[in-house]
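Intended use. Records like the one below are meant for learning the mapping from a protein sequence to its folded structure. Do not use them to infer anything beyond what is encoded.
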Amino acid sequence: MIGSELKAWLTVSGLSALLLLLLLLRHYVPQRAGARAGAGNGQGVQIGNGQTIGKREEQDDYFATATVGSRTMAVVADGISGLANGRLASMTAVSAWMKQFMKQAIPAEQPTFFSQAAALANSEVVRELGGARGGTTLAAVVIVDGYLYWGAVGDSVIALYRNGELRMVNKQHTLEAVLEERYLAGEITASEAAAHPGKRQLVNYLGYEQFKSLDIGEPIPLKKEDRVLLCTDGITNSLTELELCMLLEQEGTADVTVERIIEAVEEKRLSYQDNATVILLEKGW
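Structure written out for the chain above:
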């Protein structure tokens, strides 16, 4: 009799322990899954960034990345070294852009977010300059739900690396682009366009009251192996598209890849090397 009671007690105890274990597992497993899904940021987007001051006396490039909910944002600005206060302009523009993104008053995948963020950044730069000469380029992207949303002004670059090819996403707001349009229209010759001394001069940038507009493109659906690149002209004026492709096709994390890009720029030892900044976003979409 005692043996039967003990056996029954052990059976009930065993069932109770099993039930408790199942309840614990039910609570524990979702936490583990959630931790994996949220590693890095809300989308698992891997971000790498790097800079070099080049041969300049100060760093006029400024950048930021952030994730809010399911949205990942990256922005880079290149203060105009030929004007005073380039560093102030780039820092102010990026800070204003970040402020607008963190507010999330407007969903970041809507074109109005980019246009309003650009208007805010421009007004903040103009206010900070207080009438002094200055300005900055700016290129920004937002990745959400597997789509790349973008906007840019000036000559900083947004590029998409896919299937071994590097596609330039945004147009350059330089006199060179204007000269190319004039050549295509038959107004000037190819040699005249190529020989123009001011072809790299910016024709649109943040930091002056006549700021025109930000180029905003159609959203781009991203594929699994895509790599999104943002960089200032210190990168693109130093490395060819072929050189960038060779670096991007190598295996390695986003951090490792941007280190290789910066090393490749510095190894050229160009006497006129500008500030150079690169941001790389990949995977997770």
